Amino acid sequence: MPRNFRYAAISGSIALTATLAGCSSLTPTSAETSGDLVVRVQGMPPATDKPGLALFKKQVADFEKAHPGIKVKGSNTVFDPLTFSAKLSGGNVEDVIKVPLTEPQRLIRQKQVQPITGQLKEWEHFKEFNPQVLQQLTDDGGDVYGVPQNPYAQGLVYNRELFEQAGLDPDKPPATWEEVRSAAERISEKTGKAGFVHESKDNQGGWQLTMLSYAFGGELQKQENGKYTATLTGEPTKKALRLLKDMRWKDDSLGRTLLVNQNDVIKQFAAGQVGMFMGSPGTYRLAKMQFGMENTDAFGAAPMPQSGGDATLTGGDIYMVPKSADKKHAAAAVEWLTFAYAKPQYSTEIAAAQAKALSADPKSAVGVPTLPVFGQKRQTEINAAIKPYVNVKLDHFKPYIGGLATLELKPEPPYQAQKLYTALDPVVQAVLTKRDADIDSLLAAAEKDVNAQLAADQK
Question: What does UniProt give as the signal peptide span (predicted)?
């Protein structure tokens, strides 16, 4: 169904799907040895994100002032699907963990995280959460297990300058995948740059194939009798891969660097080497801050082009409390979640203060669109509060904001999505690197492999 959408302030960190290496210490601190309760929290921005890190440190100081006897120790550990499960099972994680939207349902089913409903309901605005953003964080009994931050919907990111050089109208980006194909070929011919780039490794090939399949009307997973199975061989998914195959081998519009992850693509885009890729508006901030994009006026964002699906993939950062946290640390963790993530996304005063602080840094990006965490009325009030500090060209996001309202927002496959993505990465890579890749047989083999794993997980 159509969803209402408006822009919101971007706070200290952006959802990253890349499997970056993180670091944190779980050893006792001086605060612990002196008697203070130390709660260890993921979500601390890296040193390269100076405005975000400064905001995080201020939040910590404000929280500790409001909660005497509790100290917060930040960690910039980033979710890695290859190591996360082992660390979580071994209890070698912080008291607050940050995971993508692929993970909550699995963690809830496996009882590896704690429900936080009771304590979260003590906050007077709990009932105003957007039900959609809590859906993937809730069990069958209605218990909530996390707090979302910066939920997003995937779209088409494009270089407005390359569009102009290719004779395309940057204010009218492609609305269908045939139009994307045509535009990519033209950009490649006229500019010598990659017209379109599709991520293909580190589980991101499967992730992007999922969103492309949604746009063609596909589903990658179904549930029957309480069991999940992969459905990777549907015709929409095959059509999506045939499109990529044609763009690669007939049009030659995908460039020369084919085995890439999100960071690789954004880095190339920031350097003006890519015409289009699938991403959220939040990649603006990564292109500017992390990869030094100087010509940020070239950044454009559009809703996900459609070819029969009228849907786009949604995601975001989710903060949860692991089972390993004891009662005292869990209670302090929920206090932090409410203070650091729920309240700033609801309070106009806090949102304005954070936007003002971030806008003081020339590398910041205030006003980049995200999905509303609360109701539309509250989001409109937030938008008005941050308006004086918005430092991005909202006109360049107009196609995205205007077109997204007509699309169904679909979550990632709810159970063990990373296993689907792992199986689909080689499929995408084969299509991009082998002219004679057999799409049908590749998908059939991947589906068989994933379903064997899902069956074993759900015994």
Answer: 1-23
